[in-house]
Amino acid sequence: MRPTVLQIKILHTVIFWMLSGCVLYALYSGLADRITPWTWVAVAALAVESVALAASGWVCPLTLLAERQGAARGSVADIFLPRVLADRIFPVCGTLYGVALALLIWRVVM
After folding, report:
1. Rounded to an integer, what distance in angstroms lies between the CA atom of residue 9 and that of residue 23?
2. pLDDT tens for residues 41-90?
3. How crowded is residue 32: how many other Cβ atoms within 10 Å of its Cβ?
4. Where along the chain do its domains lie?
5. Triad 41, 11, 50: Cα angle to 5°
6. What value does the mean pLDDT of the chain take?
7. Of residues 43 and 9, which shows the higher confidence score?
8. Positive or negative, the Cα torsion across 94, 99, 102, 103?
């Protein structure tokens, strides 16, 4: 059975919010100097996502799947977010993740 565009959108939205939570938790951990095992779980989840994105040419594999199922091309077609937010996911989340990693490295090394 092939997934519908609606099912892909729901799954993609859930994953987006989970990974956004990981970004925020990693950032909080670095800022507050409260590094726990959950911090590393969040960082690992984000690393897996980064590898998946890099392997698919910096386009989410779920976006490609949604387009193959007939969704309109673009990030808004496969996630339940307003276009103004969807168009800024990578720059905002990527920057926050980079800051979080830098803070975590600094906290661990210092």
Report:
1. 21
2. 999 999 999 999 999 998 888 888 888 887 776 555 567 878 788 778 88
3. 10
4. 5-109
5. 45
6. 89
7. 43
8. negative
- Among positive and negative, which fits the CA dihedral 95, 85, 65, 24? positive
- pTM attached to this predicted model: 0.86
Contact call for residues 94 and 36 (beta carbons, < 8 A) = no
Q: Confirm if 83 and 76 have CB atoms less than 8 A apart.
A: yes
Please name which of 12, 40, 17 lies closest in space to residue 108, comparing C-alpha atoms. Answer: 40
* Amino acid identity for residue 25 in this structure: Y
**AA letter at 34:** R
Long-range Cβ contact pairs of 14-19 (< 8 A, separation 24 or more): 15/62, 16/79, 16/81, 16/89, 18/45, 19/45, 19/46, 19/49, 19/93
